[in-house]
Protein: Gram-positive cocci surface proteins LPxTG domain-containing protein
Amino acid sequence: MAKLRGLVLVGLLGAVLFTASPALALAGPVRPAAVTVNVAHAAPVLLPAQTTVNPGPVLDPAQTDRANTEKTKNKLIAGLLAVALLGIVIWGRKIRSKRAKGS
Structure:
């Protein structure tokens, strides 16, 4: 039972540590691939005046990093609380089983 308890705790802690680090993603910003379509026409095609499309909001890297670290901190706190609660449950069951064997 002690081995199983240790494996569960190590597994939980490992899962929390490996999933709680989004700052390790070094892939950089994702850019959409350009789509090109070539169509051959017999007659020339008149295109309307080209309009520029706003590419979207510009994200500040400092704010993104701060948000990622805050999210990581919250995940670590939640993971530690989960491990602590699991420890309390296992400890309580151990005490209950000792009392049941004693009486």
Summary: The chain has a mean pLDDT of 79. Residues 61-102 form the longest helix (42 residues). The chain is about 60% helix and 0% strand. Residues 1-22+60-103 form one domain.
